[in-house]
């Protein structure tokens, strides 16, 4: 995540090149499936007494990430949808910054995006989250342990 932010906000401005574009793709592809898995697990682990990491869930997140990434790099329509979706996700931060500065709240704006088929060369970076997820699931299974779920206190005094 740090590499993605540094690259997008420092490296690309200071050293714009083919490499900084690919570095963003590698960092995003390595991080995004793990983020999807973490969000899913946080949402559903509250309902279980014990919890085991799901490698199958991670594989699904990797496949979904790869398919969506490829679509945005091949199809101008998918790329356009991605620009607006990411712009919508970034809007609350732009709005908050404007509000704090006493400026007019901006409209949602699409982000910058380039449809570039050579970005598909970065798809093998999806093996990074697969390897990390396999190790996490394997270590937990080997130890025969489960990750305990924090119990909420029901007695308030």
Topology overview:
Elements (H helix, E strand, L loop, with lengths): L1 H13 L3 H27 L5 E2 L3 H20 L1 H25 L26 H16 L4 E2 L9
Account of the 3D structure:
With 157 residues, this protein is an all-alpha fold. It is 64% helix and 3% strand. It is built from 5 helices and 2 strands. Strands 1-2 form a two-stranded antiparallel ribbon. Helix 2 packs antiparallel against helix 3, helix 3 crosses helix 4 and helix 3 runs antiparallel to helix 5. It starts with a helix and ends in a 9-residue tail after the last strand.
Described by strand count, sense and barrel closure, the largest sheet is: 2 strands, antiparallel
> How far do the termini sit from each other?
41 Å
Query: Which percent bin holds the helix content?
Result: 55-70%
Q: Over all CA atoms, what is the radius of gyration? A: 19 Å
Structural class assignment: mainly alpha
Q: How many strands in all?
A: 2
Tally of separate helices: 5
Globally, the shape reads globular
Indicate the low-confidence ranges by residue numbers.
151-157
What multimeric state do the chains show? single chain
Listing every helix as H and every strand as E from the N terminus to the C terminus, the arrangement reads: HHEHHHE
Strand proportion, as a percent range, falls in under 5%
Please give the order of strands in the largest beta sheet: 1-2
Mean pLDDT: 83
């Amino acid at each position: 995540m740090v590499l993605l932010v540094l690259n997008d906000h420092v490296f690309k401005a200071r050293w714009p090149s083919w490499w900084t574009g690919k570095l963003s793709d590698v960092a995003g592809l390595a991080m995004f499936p793990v983020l999807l898995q973490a969000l899913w697990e946080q949402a559903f682990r509250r309902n279980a007494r014990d919890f085991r990491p799901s490698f199958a869930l991670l594989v699904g997140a990797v496949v979904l990430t790869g398919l969506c990434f490829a679509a945005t790099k091949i199809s101008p329509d998918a790329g356009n949808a991605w620009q607006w979706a990411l712009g919508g996700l970034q809007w609350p931060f732009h709005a908050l910054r404007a509000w704090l500065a006493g400026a007019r709240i901006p409209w949602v704006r699409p982000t910058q995006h380039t449809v570039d088929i050579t970005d598909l060369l970065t798809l093998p970076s999806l093996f990074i989250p697969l390897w990390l997820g396999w190790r996490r699931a394997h270590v937990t299974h080997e130890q025969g342990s489960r990750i305990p779920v924090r119990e909420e206190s029901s007695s308030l005094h």
